[in-house]
UniProtKB/TrEMBL annotation:
UniProt entry keywords in alphabetical sequence: Signal
Naturally occurring in which organism (per UniProt): Starkeya nomas
The organism's place on the tree of life at top rank: Bacteria
Keyword match Chaperone: no
NCBIfam families the UniProt entry points to: fuse_rel_SoxYZ
Protein name stated in the entry: Ig-like SoxY domain-containing protein
Domain Sulphur oxidation protein SoxZ: 180-269
Keyword Signal: yes
Length: 273
């Protein structure tokens, strides 16, 4: 009997030590985020592991240059607040803030998906801001490396030939994860043809670094009403793609975008199908 008790205690102790060791081995567990947080949000309090926000991302990415992330934000029924902003952060990236989205209208719930570059094993974070100014965070640890320096899939000539082409298509409900209250609205996917050069990629012929050139500004409106605006950085993948929910009114959707070189891309787009 005593041997069994000792065995149970030994197993429990080993399991606890294994969990502690695994957590300690995760790079950037606290230090990177604690140093980064004041630069992005100042001294504002952030509710971690908030029940209002869900973040989905692969534990181990197949392609570090195109890591899919999906975010859902839902306020409780009867909650008078609205969702005003969403910030995506990759702790260990050279430029950690991947994108900040600002939403128009009375958004009590939303779903949004995109693709990020992950440069080394890192926490990916989604921080939602509600209309009362409070911040709510979800995080996911992603094992990936080399995403910011990975060569572009197309050569420069091919990439620049189609620079700025816009594509908008309908997305079936549920493709952003488990259906939520946001499923009562429609979902669209916007893609912008752009190499989104990070400044860390090398030209295979000249062996020189390709200068940074990426989409840093997007505004999507339905009629005169803002659906969302986005400020982006080098952590967004090549050919930025954004899936989002919105409340359709039958009006055309206008997209205005720009990159860091000052090139502008726009058009009035009708969702296909």
């Amino acid at each position: 009997m005593h041997r069994r008790i000792r065995l149970v205690l030994a197993v429990a102790l080993f399991s606890a030590l294994a969990v502690t060791a695994a957590a300690a081995q995760e790079p950037g567990a606290d230090a990177t985020w604690n140093a980064l947080k004041p630069d992005v949000f100042g001294e504002r309090a952030i509710e971690e592991s908030s029940p209002l926000i869900r973040l989905a991302a692969p534990k181990r990415a197949e392609d570090a240059a195109m890591v899919p992330v999906e975010v859902e934000v839902m306020l409780p029924e009867g909650d008078p607040r609205t969702v005003s902003k969403l910030t995506l952060i990759v702790d260990e990236n050279p430029a950690p803030v991947a994108a900040t989205f600002t939403f128009g209208g009375e958004r009590h719930d939303l779903a949004l998906g995109t693709r990020l570059r992950v440069n080394s094993y890192s926490f990916v974070r989604a921080i939602a801001e509600t209309s009362d100014g409070t911040l709510h965070m979800a995080e996911r640890y992603v094992k990936a490396s080399g995403g910011c320096s990975a060569p572009a899939m197309k050569d420069e000539e091919a990439a620049l030939k189609n620079l700025g082409q816009l594509k908008l298509k309908s997305v079936n409900a549920g493709e952003l994860g488990d259906p939520t209250k946001a499923s009562r609205v429609s979902q669209l996917q916007l893609m912008i043809r752009h190499p989104n050069y990070s400044g860390l990629q090398m030209d295979p012929l000249t062996r020189a670094y390709i200068p940074a050139k990426f989409v840093d500004d997007i505004e999507v409106k339905q009629g005169d009403e803002l659906i969302f605006s986005m400020t982006g950085g080098i952590s967004l993948s090549e050919d930025p793609a954004i899936r989002f929910t919105y409340q359709p009114t039958g009006q055309e959707i206008r997209v205005d975008a720009a990159d860091t070189d000052g090139s502008r891309f726009n058009g009035e787009l009708k969702p296909a199908g």
